[in-house]
Design a protein that fits this description.
The chain is of the alpha+beta class. It has eleven helices and ten strands. Helix content is 41%, strand content 16%. The longest helix has 18 residues. It is globular.
Length: 285
């Protein structure tokens, strides 16, 4: 499959992490399954060809932040276009607390009515990913206009950028709010309590840390990601992914993404990287 990411226009950089496209290619075999894993960020996903067989060939949905995992059967001819958002996008686009929709997927056209239906049709019929980026960017620009940023948004981004390895008490102090006020505001925007959200962010940082090659064992990886010990790491990883970490890391090990393990001194290939099945919120196998 061919996977590409696209940077958002500058004026949407505070709302959108990236746009992405994923579609079948003639020279690759399409995976049969997809494992959705815990994710601290919401996404808008347009399926314009076959994809997850649970949904119709042409469908649009908005997935909120989630702590659950799920397995999907995948069709033969995949076509996806996605928008990876920051957590506060839920409040800015839908004017609702994120914690009211966690672990749920909503029909995009139900959430955004006729505007959503019109955009979905345009995305389905667009010929290129660049066209889809332009269409969705225009839609988001109109929906997010006049929104005022909440200072808590910056603190949540800190948790994401530092893969959950933050001192929650220090972040709370930066907010100038009481503990209860901070936890309530954080949960409204991020969907989960600060400590639980940091756990999800830490889990999502495991692959990046693994690819750095700066450890000698699974225990070393656990400590480098700030888990108490190996058993704590295995237990929490399975809670958020549904699989054992060694099973997941085998797929990462086989990845041909152009990222070399430092500990193995693998020379980089001149060929363009192939899609390794990994997305920020799950894995195709």
């Amino acid at each position: 499959m061919e996977y590409k990411t696209f940077a958002p226009p500058p004026h949407l950089g505070d709302l959108v992490q990236c746009f992405w496209s994923l579609q079948s290619s003639e020279d690759n075999i399409t995976p049969k399954e997809y494992f959705l894993m815990a994710d601290g960020c919401p996404e808008i996903i347009f399926q314009y060809n076959e994809g997850f067989q649970k949904y119709s060939t042409q469908s649009a949905r908005m997935r909120f932040q989630h702590s659950a995992f799920e397995r999907f059967d995948v069709g033969r001819n995949v076509g996806f276009f996605g928008v990876r958002l920051y957590p506060h996008a839920i409040g800015q686009l839908l004017k609702m607390p994120a914690n009211e929709g966690i672990n749920h997927v909503f029909d995009f056209t139900v959430l955004f009515k006729q505007d959503g239906e019109n955009l979905a049709d345009q995305v389905y019929n667009a010929k290129t990913a660049d066209e889809r980026v332009a269409l969705v960017s225009g839609f988001l620009t109109k929906k997010a206009i006049n929104n005022k940023p909440d200072p808590i948004e910056y603190l949540i981004k800190q948790v994401i950028e530092q893969a959950g390895q933050v001192d929650i008490s220090k972040i709370q102090q930066q907010s100038n709010l009481s503990v209860k006020q901070f936890e309530r505001r954080f949960k409204t925007i991020a969907g989960f309590s600060p400590k639980y959200y940091a756990r999800i962010a830490r889990f999502q940082g495991v692959r990046t840390q693994y690819c750095s090659g700066q450890f000698e064992s699974l225990t070393g990886l656990a400590y480098s990601c700030n888990y108490y010990d190996q058993s704590h790491f295995i237990r929490e990883f399975k809670e958020f992914s549904g699989v054992q970490p060694l099973h997941y890391l085998r797929f990462v090990e086989k990845a041909n993404t152009g990222i070399s393990k430092k500990s193995k001194n693998i020379n980089s290939s001149p060929k363009p990287p192939q899609f390794d099945g990994y997305l920020p919120c799950g894995l195709f196998v």
